[in-house]
TrEMBL record:
It catalyses: 4-CDP-2-C-methyl-D-erythritol + ATP = 4-CDP-2-C-methyl-D-erythritol 2-phosphate + ADP + H(+). Keywords: ATP-binding, Isoprene biosynthesis, Kinase, Nucleotide-binding, Transferase. This is 4-diphosphocytidyl-2-C-methyl-D-erythritol kinase. ATP binds at P93, M94, G95, G96, G97, V98, G99, G100, G101, S102, S103. Pathway: Isoprenoid biosynthesis; isopentenyl diphosphate biosynthesis via DXP pathway; isopentenyl diphosphate from 1-deoxy-D-xylulose 5-phosphate: step 3/6. It is an enzyme of class 2 (transferase). Pfam families: GHMP_kinases_C (PF08544), GHMP_kinases_N (PF00288). GO terms for molecular function: 4-(cytidine 5'-diphospho)-2-C-methyl-D-erythritol kinase activity. Residues 65-142 form the GHMP kinase N-terminal domain. Catalyzes the phosphorylation of the position 2 hydroxy group of 4-diphosphocytidyl-2C-methyl-D-erythritol.
Length: 303
């Protein structure tokens, strides 16, 4: 029997997010800085004839799941008749602005590309990923990046790999509704790539560290407002401001060490769901694939 190929689907944070316009097709033009977290979902892939998804949250098993959509897209693209049993261990908050669904889709694209021996180049996988969601390409590429377009034009970036305390407000923010909201700021001036790649201090000096969804989401979702205030009060030792990721609801603050993030977490207490993770500029998905390849452990899972 083949072994299971086990791969992470990490979370992302938007360290800033500017909405710079709206395209004729309704999608929004963005400028955002993505960094990965060493925390996320886990997917397991085992070769079999049919395609099957199992999950610790059974309500997530449906034809709409981005993992199954990614698998079908790969089958269509390559004509492969192979299937897989895919196990999803869901840990990331859903509709949390940390990209769980998009990351699962990217891990499915890269994992099945290996499992099925398809050898599609990463560039093509990123193009396929964009058909599934605007945030999928950055997870396929696996480098922290300044993103433009709808999030698919990527320039590698190297923000500090600090620790983050992430609070998970007890609400789900609907991304589509937030993008469509009439009060959303859509006219933030565009910045040059070089400004986006500056140091954190310089980004702060240039007033780049804001998320254009945040004022709207704070107004509409009191749970998010409360969490930002909690983080602001608890972050004495934080090296930066509390901010929201993506279209929400998660909010985060950066710290120089895990201990400092833990101290802030302790002052907030357990009424609010939270986690601590390190920001990483290479996706844990890519590090894991690289390590498995170096240890010649991929052959045990593939055709
Ligand atoms: C806001 C962001 C920031 O990273 O993240 P999340 O909060 O979802 O994590 C992303 O732009 C979310 O990207 P993603 O969740 O992949 O969006 P998609 O599935 O492609 O699109 C869902 C819907 O959001 C709107 N949309 C999405 C992306 C974009 N640049 N402009 C848009 O207007 C469109 O109405 C689209 O139909
Ligand atoms: N594998 C998946 N994991 C999570 N959500 C998924 C998945 N596939 C499809 N979805 C749908 O996408 C929605 C938002 O996805 P998610 O990535 O968790 O949000 P966000 O991008 O805000 O972090 C969910 O509410 C769910 O309906």
């Amino acid at each position: 029997m083949k072994s299971e190929l086990v791969l992470p689907a990490p979370a992302k944070l938007n360290l800033f997010l500017h909405i710079t316009g709206r395209r004729p097709d309704g999608y929004h033009a963005l400028q955002t800085l993505f960094q990965f977290l060493d925390y996320g979902d886990e997917l397991g892939f085992t070769l079999q004839d049919s395609l099957e998804l199992e999950c610790n949250l059974p309500e997530l098993v449906s034809d709409d799941n981005l993992i199954l959509k990614a698998a079908r897209l790969l089958q269509q693209e390559t004509g492969t008749q192979q299937g897989a049993r895919i196990r999803l261990d869901k840990r990331l908050p859903m509709g949390g602005g940390v990209g769980g669904g998009s990351s699962d889709a990217a891990t499915a694209l890269l994992g099945l590309n290996v499992l099925w021996g398809l050898q599609l180049p990463e560039e093509r996988l990123a193009e396929l990923g964009l058909q599934l969601g605007a945030d999928v390409p950055v997870f396929v590429r696996g480098s922290a990046a300044f993103a433009e377009g709808v999030g698919e034009i990527l320039t590698s970036a190297h923000p500090p790999e600090c620790w983050y305390l992430v609070l998970v407000p007890d609400c789900h923010v609907n991304t589509v509704k937030m993008y469509a909201h009439r009060d959303l700021t859509r006219d933030t001036p565009t910045i040059k790539v070089c400004a986006a790649l500056e140091t954190y201090e310089e980004q702060r000096r240039q007033n780049l560290l804001h998320n254009d969804f945040e004022p709207l989401v704070r107004r509409l979702y009191p749970e998010v407002e409360t969490c930002i205030q909690l983080l602001d009060n608890a972050r004495n030792s934080s090296i930066g401001q509390a901010m929201m990721s993506g279209s929400g609801a998660c909010v985060f603050a950066p710290f120089a060490s895990r201990e400092q993030a833990e101290a802030a977490m302790a002052t907030i207490g357990s009424d609010v769901q939270s986690f601590i993770a390190r920001g990483v500029n290479t996706s844990p998905l890519h590090s894991t694939l690289h390590n498995l390849q170096a240890a010649h452990q991929l052959e045990a899972c593939t055709t």
